[in-house]
Amino acid sequence: MYRKYAEKAIDKAVKLLGIDSPTGYTKEAAEYVKNELTALGFDAFITEKGGIAASLGGKDEKNALLLEAHLDTLGGMVAEIKSSGRLRITPLGGLNGFNTEGENCRVITRKNGVFDGTFLLKNPSIHVNGEFNKTDRSFDNMEVVLDEDVRTAEDVKALGIMNGDIVAFDTRTVVTKSGYIKSRFLDDKLSVSAILAFAEYLRDENIIPDRRIYLHITVYEEVGHGASAVPFDGITEVLSVDMGCIGEGLSCTEKQVSICAKDSGGPYNYDITTRLIEAAEKTGADYSVDIYPHYGSDAEATLRGGHDCRHGLIGPGVYSSHGYERSHIDGVENTIRLLTGFAV
Fold it and tell me: What single DSSP character describes residue 22?
């Protein structure tokens, strides 16, 4: 049963990854998620902030669980049109020049469509630039080279490109025969898709949980305030479903669901973490418990927003976070297993 919904989640993730949604430019992706939920029969709406909120049903409205995931991704914004016709960008979220060098990208204008380009080091030919290997990949040293015949700032402006335009990067999404999914921005579109599959499971099985389950898909997580506002009353527990970290000193793999006990914002609620471990064991989910050294979640944004609730964090293991990321269908399946055991 769980495998079927994990496969559905992978299919949804591929579609969602095909929709550009850097922080601040999420309307189309939000409409996709809203339509997926309404098609399942759930009452979903777009919040004033641009996120998606829905009720997944349940009886006790005064002891409700809020599931959070985020739709916004890393990206860039045009900060300067140079005299050369190249573009300097400023990052949206934790975009890193070292792992975006050489990537294809798109400049999304406000008035005149989309223009393709490549994000490169200035003077990028190693046959010409003797300092190529020594140059810091900072945003001052890198630029978007447009795939247009432009040689001056005036040429670029004539295309309708202006400061403040969004720069979206190619995802290069691949699903392998062995079950791996590789892409930019699995953080957090893979978990959004897992939650959509979990919602479909509730619908298919006609499950009415003992307590109300609300859903909030946020659109400003990558800049820290995605879930600072909560669009529902009666929330006593909030569970962020985001990427699980993989790396040196951590135990999680791409095939597991990660339960985070502590990140850079401090410990997650002890009782919630204990119950997540118990739910994983009850449902047979392959899990790990880890501490993330450089991480912050929507659940913490909710608490910082002044909401009095208990909080936790889980997610499928994702390798090479904020780079070209990799996960596995098993990790998605184990995440859905854990969601079912904890929430239902």
Answer: B
